[in-house]
Amino acid sequence: MAFSVAVVGATGRMGTLATRLIEASDDFEVHARLGSSDAIEGIDGADLVIDLTLPAVSPEVVEAAVSRGIPVLVGTSGWTSERLARVRSRLGDDPQTGVIVVPNFSLGSVIGTRLATIAAKWFDSIEIIEAHHAGKSDSPSGTAIRTAELIAAARDDRGPVEAPHADQRARGQQVASVPVHSLRMDGVLAEQQVIFGGEGETLRITHQTVSDSSYEAGILLALRALPSARGLVVGLDALLGLDS
Questions:
Q1: Fold category of 107-210 in CATH
Q2: pTM, rounded to two decimals
Q3: 136 catalytic, yes or no?
Q4: Which fold is adopted by the domain 3-104+213-240?
């Protein structure tokens, strides 16, 4: 039996991609395509919801799905640790449905972030440069926020990274003590570089997205995990077993 999926944010770039993948699959079908002018009640009756909207709208979509007992996959950026904590609290101690939040559906990006957490324990000077297309509405990106937070968690015993002159705006926005620099410009799809500085050396972990096709495997992987998910699951790395 195919699961019916309500795509919220269906008219956007990622929503269009997700809709195409759902229509081409054997295990999913489109229940509804919702744009910014459509009522959220369009998700009623769906087996699953995928949220590909905007950071300001995404929490409302998640609340609408959770209140109806519909598992929801979130591919919208802007989900900080504080926002995630509110969702975890909303689901309660015995969650009957699942919320999967994926900052980046690219397998290469997720693996790059995991490599950064390994290196984070060995360097005190760490900064992130992330670049996206000019139309991306938020900064830093959800991927950069997730990377910085995981770096900080990996350095729990060592402490915050060294970030001198944090009062200077050009030094980047600090996320979990990691300076993040965001570029929004034409000619770029998505790129992230994590730079580690040590005595006499630097290490760079770079991931570049050159086509939206890089997101396809991750979207389908997350959708297929959604029906059985319970509680809050964050990151494609959890679905790939990279968080163990």
A1: Dihydrodipicolinate Reductase; domain 2 (3.30.360)
A2: 0.88
A3: yes
A4: Rossmann fold (3.40.50)
